Amino acid sequence: MDPLGADLFFWLLARAAGLASFIALAIAVLSGVALRTSVLDWLATNRAMRELHTYATALWLPLGAVHLVTLLFDRTARVTVADLVVPFGVSYGPVAVGLGTIAFDLFVLVTVTSWMKRHVEQRTWSWIHRTSYVAFALTFAHAVLSGTDFSAPAVSALAWSIGFAILVLSAARLAWGRLPS
């Protein structure tokens, strides 16, 4: 594969994996909020919602990994291994990419502590888990600021709709706690 073809391949794969990871994270956050409210009880049982939450949480990891690894091979992006965990160091879109780096770090923390839930004090785990709201907001900002796909109407409509739904459900959760059906 010629270098230009390789760069295009890695750029396209990074975009596709980033978008897929965004959707998996959105499903994980939405289903997580749904587990703590009853607004979406009409969609599925609590058990089914928990399974969806667990699956989507596990799904974002390989998708996010593909997104990050392909960026390492994309010569246009010029992302280093350090840039994947240390925010604001890259020359291309340092704020946008830095927000994505912080979001990634937070989601890894939330995911790992969820796997270790039995070994973490409940109150500590709850507070760490709540950072997923912040992490998703940072992921959304990262996608809006650095994602070239947001110029596509379908992608933009989907992402803004997801963001709005998470915002409304999260605000309802914060304001009223567990909501009645």
Q: What structural class should be given to the helix and strand makeup?
A: mainly alpha
Question: Percentage of helical residues?
Answer: over 70%
| Biggest sheet record | none
Distance between the termini: 56 Å
- Give a count of the beta strands, DSSP E runs of length 2 or more: 0
Listing every helix as H and every strand as E from the N terminus to the C terminus, the arrangement reads: HHHHH
How many helical stretches?
Answer: 5
Strand content: under 5%
Catalogue the unreliable spans. none
Mean pLDDT: 88
Please tell me how large the radius of gyration is.
17 Å
Shape: globular
Descriptive report:
The protein is mainly alpha-helical. The chain has helices at 3-36, 46-73, 94-115, 122-146, 153-176. Helix 1 (3-36) crosses helix 4. It is globular.
Question: Helices, strands, pairings?
Answer:
Blueprint: H1 3-36, H2 46-73, H3 94-115, H4 122-146, H5 153-176
Helix pairs in contact: 1-2, 1-4, 1-5, 3-4
Q: Short summary of the structure?
A:
The protein has 181 residues and is mainly α.
Write out key terms for the chains shown.
181 residues; mainly alpha; 0% strand
